[in-house]
Write a structure and sequence with these properties.
The longest helix is centred in the first third of the chain and has 12 residues, at 20-31. The protein is an alpha+beta fold. The protein contains 5 helices and 5 strands; from the N terminus they run αβαββαβαβα. Helices cover 29% and strands 21% of the residues.
Length: 160
């Protein structure tokens, strides 16, 4: 028979932050140390990205990567494919990171270094700040840079 109240079988769920487990989790999270990071953003060919990522264990830096569509201005097909990178590192490792990138043929020094906000709302930045090891985070989606190319530019690029 139908009744207006949900009855005893429905679990009572507390709001986020009210349950004792939530409070304990937030306490633990605040106790964890965050690294003070710098970030540089640049567009790199995927061939060069592979070279740089091999140096990631030897030099302490993390990468967040977003693949660019072949229709983007800075990307293309095959060896011309490129990605947008955010390179994260601590100030004490800056010279090592810049040397590692220049050895791989990537001019990281040309990109402006920006301090990472400790209260950042971006999940990948929080994950990298809390992590003690170097991370390589790659987005599953493909992005297009800037306004779409004109028909003439596309025909020229794809030799049509």
């Amino acid at each position: 028979m139908w009744r207006p109240d949900p009855g005893p079988c429905v679990a009572q769920v507390a709001e986020w932050g009210e349950h004792p487990d939530d409070v304990e989790y937030m306490r633990q999270l605040k106790a964890m140390p965050k690294r003070i990071m710098k970030r540089r953003e640049l567009i790199v060919k995927n061939v060069d990205l592979e070279k740089v990522s091999k140096k990631q264990g030897k030099v302490n830096f993390s990468i967040a990567c977003w693949a660019l569509s072949e229709y983007s201005k800075s990307s293309g097909l095959g060896d011309e494919a490129a990605s947008i990178l955010h390179v994260f590192y601590e100030s004490k490792d800056e010279r090592k990171v810049l040397n590692a990138f220049s050895a791989a043929g990537v001019e990281l020094e040309a990109a402006e270094a920006v301090p990472v906000e400790p209260d950042s709302s971006l999940p990948h930045e929080q994950e990298i700040m809390y992590s003690r090891e170097a991370l390589f985070i790659q987005d599953d989606f493909v992005y297009e840079e800037g306004p779409p190319l004109s028909t003439e530019e596309l025909k020229k690029r794809f030799r049509m």
